[in-house]
Structures are given as structure tokens and as C-alpha cells.
Amino acid sequence: MTTCAYRVARAATWLKAAFAVAVGMNLAEAVWDPDGAGWRAARAAASVLFAVALVAYVVLRVLRWRRARSERS
């Protein structure tokens, strides 16, 4: 596995983990109505984590695609 492919796979793993945390928090909120500053901070942290993981994954995929396309030319 190349370094670029390894980075994409690692970013995908982080994205899956962030998604699992977000889904878990949504399920917890559906069953139980948490409130307070701690919960709001956790929701904000999970949102930031997911956004960063998504952007990193997309950027790495685009860079890998561009590199593969330029190598074929």
C-alpha cells in the first residue's frame, strides 16, 4: 500500500469513527434528553471532529485521484 493510500485509509477510519460518535450521540438524545453545557460542548466537539475528518478524507481522495490521473498521462 502506498503512503497516499495509507493516508486515505486512515482518514476513512477517522471519518467512520466520527460518524459513529455522531450517530451514538443522536441515539442518546433520542432516548434521553440530555441538557447542559457539557452536552453542548460534547456535541460541538463531535461536530468539529466530523467536519475535520470529512474535509481531510475528501482532500486526500482528490489529491490521490489527481496524482493517479497525472501518472497515467
What report would you give on this structure?
It is a single chain. 89% of the residues lie in helices and 0% in strands. By secondary structure, it is mainly α. The longest helix has 36 residues, at 37-72. It is elongated.
Q: TL;DR?
A:
This protein has 73 residues and is mainly alpha-helical.
Write the layout of secondary structure elements.
Elements: H1 3-31, H2 37-72
How big a fraction of the residues is strand?
under 5%
| Average pLDDT, all residues | 89
Distance between the termini: 22 Å
Shape: elongated
State the total count of DSSP E strands. Answer: 0
Sheet with most strands: none
Counting DSSP H or I runs of 4 or more residues, the number of helices is: 2
Q: Outline the low-pLDDT stretches.
A: none
List SSEs in N-to-C order: HH
**Over all CA atoms, what is the radius of gyration?**
17 Å
Bin the helical content. over 70%
Structural class: mainly alpha
Provide key terms for this protein.
73 residues; mainly alpha
